[in-house]
Structures are given as C-alpha cells and as structure tokens.
Specification:
It is elongated, with a radius of gyration of 23 Å. The chain has two domains: 3-85, 434 Repressor (Amino-terminal Domain) (Orthogonal Bundle); 92-174, no CATH class. It has helices spanning 3-14, 19-25, 31-44, 49-59, 63-86, 114-128, and strands at residues 92-98, 101-106, 131-135, 140-144, 150-155, 165-168, 171-174. The longest helix is centred in the middle third of the chain and has 24 residues, at 63-86. By secondary structure, it is an alpha+beta fold. It has a five-stranded antiparallel β-sheet with strand order 2-1-3-4-5, covered by helices on one side. Strand 4 (140-144) and strand 5 (150-155) form a beta hairpin.
Length: 177
C-alpha cells in the first residue's frame, strides 16, 4: 500500500466511513464503480487529480500533506525501479517475426560483450531479414532493422520500457524473463 493510499484509508476509517459511503460523498452515481476507484486509490495512491480533490474535500484532508505523501510514494517507486533496472540480466535478442509477434532468442555463449552482441545481432538481422531489438540490459536496447543497420539506441525510464512490448487496453506485455 502506498503512503498516500494508507493515509486516505486511515482517514476514511477514522471518520467511520465505508468505501460505499465515501463513493456517495464524492459524487459517484455508479457506486460500484466508485468503490472500485476508491479501493484502487487506497491501494496504489494513484487516481486522477479530480478524484483526489473530491476525496480531499469529502474527508477534509490537508492537500499539502497529500502532496507530500504522493512525493514520498513517487520517490520510493523511483528507487525501486532504479534497483530493478540496475540488476544484471543476460543480454538477449528480441526478434520481430511480424507485427505484434516477437520471440526471444538467447545469444551464443561466446558473445559476452555489448560490442560483440551488437555485431552478432546486426548479422542475425541481415541474414534472417528480421527487425530485432538487442536487449543489452534492463536499461539499454539497440534497435536493428532487417538490413542489419542500427536504427536507434534507447535507454529505459520509469514507465517507458526500451524493448518491444504489446499493449492491450492499458496492460503492457513485455517479452522478458
């Protein structure tokens, strides 16, 4: 649970309100939808700004305290992402077989450096005529066209992966371990 979500949950409970009652207070006509959104807010600390404002008003919460807690949550998320992104992982190649269809391919054991991996990936792409993404680490990827030419080198940031993914609605599916 996030710091902001825990704060909101504690204040709601301190006032003796259920999620249903809070949903009605913030103006939801579809109470089930309101309960889902409020439960999500309490779990993640994330919501659209207008919902946060309505909850703050309904519970008479200090907006400055809420902003401070949201910033603490953001910093914790960033630290966790940095820790995750810094963990070493084996380099691999993600091969684009066709639109939205990818397969992961391990590099040969003799390929051990990023420079060797890039040369191997370029040759693989050229030989098989596939676009590929060489995943050097969780941060760095090299995108190579079907002629074996490097198109781009990218670095991932929080919320923006640097390897191929498929997205259905708002759910992203990465091809990773």
């Amino acid at each position: 649970m996030s710091n902001l979500g825990a704060f909101i949950s504690a204040e709601r409970k301190r006032r003796g309100l259920t999620l249903k009652q809070l949903a009605l207070l913030v103006g939801y006509r579809n109470v089930a939808k309101g309960i889902r959104r409020l439960a999500g807010l309490e779990q993640t600390g994330l919501a659209k700004p207008d919902l946060l404002m309505k909850v703050a008003d309904a519970l008479d919460l200090d907006w400055t305290a809420m902003e401070r807690l949201a910033e603490v949550d953001r910093q914790e998320l960033l630290r966790e992402w940095e820790r995750w992104a810094s963990e070493p992982v084996p380099m691999c190649l993600v091969v684009r077989l066709m639109a939205a269809v990818y397969v992961r391919k391990d590099l040969p054991a003799e390929v051990t450096t990023p420079k060797e991996a890039e040369a191997w990936a370029c040759a693989f792409a050229r030989q098989h005529r596939f676009r590929v993404c060489l995943v050097v680490s969780r941060r760095i990827s090299v995108w190579i066209d079907a002629q074996g030419q490097v198109e781009a080198r990218t670095e991932a940031t929080l919320g923006h992966p640097n390897m191929p993914f498929m997205q259905l609605k708002r759910q992203r599916f990465l091809l990773e371990e």
